[in-house]
Amino acid sequence: MSLLTCTIAAIPGADPVARAAARARLDQLTMPPWALGRLMDAAERLAAMTGNPRPPLARTAVAVFAGDHGVCAEGVSAFPAEVTPQMMFNFVGGGAGINAIARISGASVTAVDVGVAGDLAPIKGRYRDERVRPGTANLARGAAMTREEAVRAVEAGIRVANDLCLGADLLAAGDMGIGNTTPSSCITACLAGADAAAVTGRGTGIDDAAHARKREVVARALALHRPDPADGLDVLTKVGGLEIGAIAGFYLGCAAARKPVVVDGFIATAGALIAQALCPKVVDHLIAGHRSVEPGHRIALSKLGLDPLLDLGLRLGEGTGAAMAFPLVQAAGRLLTDVATFAEAAVAGKTA
Predict the structure, then answer these.
(1) Beta strand pairing status for 108-115 and 261-263?
(2) What digits encode the pLDDT tens for the residues 162-180?
(3) 3-state DSSP helix/strand/coil percent for the chain, to nearest 5?
(4) Given pLDDT bands bounded at 50, 70 and 90, which one contains residue 352?
(5) CB count, 10 Å around CB of 349?
(6) Secondary element (H or E) of residue 89
(7) Residue 350 pLDDT
(8) CA-CA-CA-CA torsion for 107, 119, 185, 139, nearest 10 degrees?
(9) Reduced to 3 states, what is the DSSP secondary structure of residue 114?
């Protein structure tokens, strides 16, 4: 069997026994019932994800997947395509937003080339080379990639997850790719059954004219390709991105390893929609780190059934919002490992 098929077959659902054990302990902690609210909800889900009522969460890792997009030729981005390879240099140099934020929780940052259309030879050996092709085709004119390339992109993400899960307990995927909110809008419109205009935002900060053009491009691409929402690989092939496919694979790989993974912003969530289409059980292993300002992000999160931990007006990507949420997720885990029950602490419980 292929790596993708084997990985999907290995993904378990939420563990009801671990969930029940966590719930029982949380109900007995030295505090009023469910006094820490959604943090306690997260603790219960963490136990179910990992199959462990006291899940380890100390070691954190972020993989940033990069790829270029032919649709930039349609004028849908405020930044030129050459920024993608330039940011790869920034990631390995430690100067990007994700590098700064990852240091807060001590997370490792691995930059991964899945489809950068640029020369990365000067930093060879400092990033992970999983390049499928140098950028996608223009999805407004033809399919973004072939189905075989879509599978290769997803399997690249699985391989990265398999390696990082060996040394990490809590993970996140980030993205880098000028123009990638356009394929993310296409994916969200298709898989969430939403209106193209409703899911298409301003990305890197485009003006009104470019925003109108971007909405038209998304609607035109969906009408041209008619991607099948029942087939995640068809959607990825026709209107996706190489880094988006790799992010989907990363989620699948983490889920198969029973490692919780925090979902970042709009592009990372588009990857989660592809992963959900490939294997619905993957959602049992995902935590929404934040809600971005992109209008499609709220719609995508709703399709996944995930409630984000943070809402800070972010729109950077790179995994920054997910990495910001790492300490909150770790705090949820600490409720299960560090807080005493009434019996353990010899504290009187609630009176009848």
Answers:
(1) unpaired
(2) 999 999 999 999 999 999 9
(3) 55, 10, 35
(4) low
(5) 10
(6) helix 83-93
(7) 77
(8) -150
(9) strand
Query: Considering the chain, what is the average pLDDT of its residues?
Result: 97
Q: Coil, strand or helix: which one is 109? A: strand
What is the distance of C-alpha 129 from the center of its chain?
Answer: 20
Residue 79 DSSP label: S
Query: Does residue 163 come out as left (phi exceeding 0), alpha (psi in the -120 to 50 range) or beta?
Result: alpha
Neighbouring-strand partners of residue 113: 66, 129
pLDDT digits (tens, 9 = 90+) for 262-285: 999 999 999 999 999 999 999 999
**Residue 15: closest CA among 258, 252, 331:** 258
Integer Cα distance of 251 and 259 in angstroms: 9
Polymer length in residues for the chain: 352
What's the CA angle centered on 269, arms 268 and 273, to 5 degrees? 120
Written in H, E and C, the secondary structure of 265-322 is CHHHHHHHHHHHHHCHHHHHHEEECECCCCHHHHHHHHHHCCCCCECCCCCCCCCHHH
Catalytic hit among 130, 149, 155, 318: 318
Kindly list the structural domains of the chain, giving each domain's residue range(s) and its CATH number in brackets, ordered by start: 60-334 (3.40.50.10210)
* 318 labelled catalytic: yes
Which residue is associated with the tokens 């790869």?
88
